[in-house]
Structures are given as C-alpha cells and as structure tokens.
Specification:
The chain has 2 domains: about 80 residues, Orthogonal Bundle (DNA polymerase, domain 1); about 120 residues, hpI Integrase, Chain A. The chain has 9 helices and 3 strands; from the N terminus they run αααααααβββαα. The chain is elongated and about 65 Å long.
Length: about 230
C-alpha cells in the first residue's frame, strides 16, 4: 500500500521530486515500524507510539531528530493516511490525534550577530584552569549553538541533559528538544565532571550553579555573556 501511495505522489504531478524523496524515506521508516503489519490495520495508539519513538529515539547519526524533522515525518505519514481514506483503503485516519507544533524561530540576541571568528574568540576567553571558567565556557557554547534565551538556560536541570543521545530539553517560552554537537557535549561533559561537583549542594537539580551552590539566575547568565563580551572588546 505504501508503494502504491508513492507511485501516486510521483504520477500526480502535484509534488516536487524532493517532496517525493522525503516521503519515500519516512514512509519506509514507518513501514519498518509496522514490522510486517498492514498499515491499514494500525490504530491511533499505534501511531501515537510511532510518534513518541520518533521524537525520542536517535537517528542513524546517533542524534535525536529536530522538531522540524519530526514534523516532516509526521506530514508524510499523515498524507499517506489521507490518501488511504480518499481511496477507501481505511475508514478512519489514525494520525488525527498527532500534534505537530509549529517550529518557532528563536529570538535574536547579540550573540547571533557574531561571525565565526568572533564566536571562536568568545569561546577562547574563559580560563579553563578554573571551575567557573569551565562553567562559563559551557554556558557560552550552549547559548551560541542552541540560541536559547538566558531564562531558558537558567531553568535547565541536570536531568534535562542526556549525554547518551546528545539531547537537551529546554523550557523557555516553549519546550524544545535540542540535538547537541560533539563539541558542545564535550564542553558540558567537562563541566559536569570537573566543575559542577565543586559547586553543587545537597538536592540541587540545576545544571548551572553559582558560587553559593544555587541555580545560576537569569541575571547571572546575562552577566556571563556581558563579562566575556567586554573582554573581547566587541
């Protein structure tokens, strides 16, 4: 049935070659999830499980899929079931409950205006011979790569970070899962290994901490940015 749908997409002339190729890739992935079951026999709970696995299971490169990529996959499968309903192959659309929130663009900050060379200069500023320098390097690298806000950075707890999958959950204006680069993971691992144990207090859940063993406040995150920005004379 999936192959028949792919042939329809190609023959209809309504979809570009790129769209057809993306649909094929995700529908073959979905077919593997079906495990020999007829897609027409799947229920809403099956599609919800597929969606959950798609969000949390790393892809071939070992990283979790971005929200935009997940939306592409859901779009391909949703289109398939709409076609299946229109052709009488299924009586109900099991993708009806799947939610694909809009991928919002992060707010601009002055860090976003930095050229690659200035980014490297900024990241080279913290003194990595000190626990706070290691912490600050991790914070700057995180802000530069993920483009999260200072409030979102302050809210991160240790359990929001998963080194096995390279994933980070942030909760700013909206919740988002980030797939982190190897370089950023290395900075965060060093912080968690060498610096955070010297700062953490009993029962502390926050990822980034101040000298008083408390969660690093929004203002303190901004002070980290300002300190190294001024040192770089940007």
């Amino acid at each position: 049935m999936i192959e028949e749908h792919l042939q329809y997409l190609k023959a209809s002339g309504e979809y570009s070659q790129v769209t057809c190729e993306i649909a094929r890739a995700w529908l073959l992935q979905f077919q593997a999830f079906c495990g020999g079951r007829d897609p027409a026999a799947l229920k809403t709970k099956d599609l919800e499980r597929w969606h959950k696995e798609l969000v949390w299971t790393p892809g071939a490169n070992g990283k979790i899929y971005s929200p935009g990529t997940v939306n592409l996959a859901v779009g391909a499968v949703r289109r398939f079931y709409r076609w299946a309903m229109a052709t009488g192959k299924v009586s109900k659309n099991p993708t009806a409950t799947l939610v694909t929130p809009a991928v919002k663009k992060p707010r601009k900050s002055r860090l976003d205006s930095l050229s690659p060379s200035k980014r490297r200069k900024l990241l080279a500023c913290p003194n990595l011979d000190t626990s706070f320098g290691i912490r600050d390097r991790a914070i700057l690298a995180l802000l530069l790569e993920t483009r999260i806000s200072s409030p979102a950075c302050s809210k991160i707890d240790l359990h929001h970070l998963c080194f096995d999958t390279g994933a980070l959950l942030t909760k700013g204006r909206f919740q988002k899962i980030h797939s982190l680069s190897d370089g950023l993971l290395a900075d965060l691992q060093r912080y968690c290994r060498e610096s955070r144990p010297l700062l953490v207090g009993p029962g502390t859940q926050a990822l980034f901490l101040d000298r008083f063993q408390n969660r690093l406040s929004v203002g303190s995150v901004q002070q980290v940015i300002n300190r190294y920005w001024d040192l770089c004379s940007f």
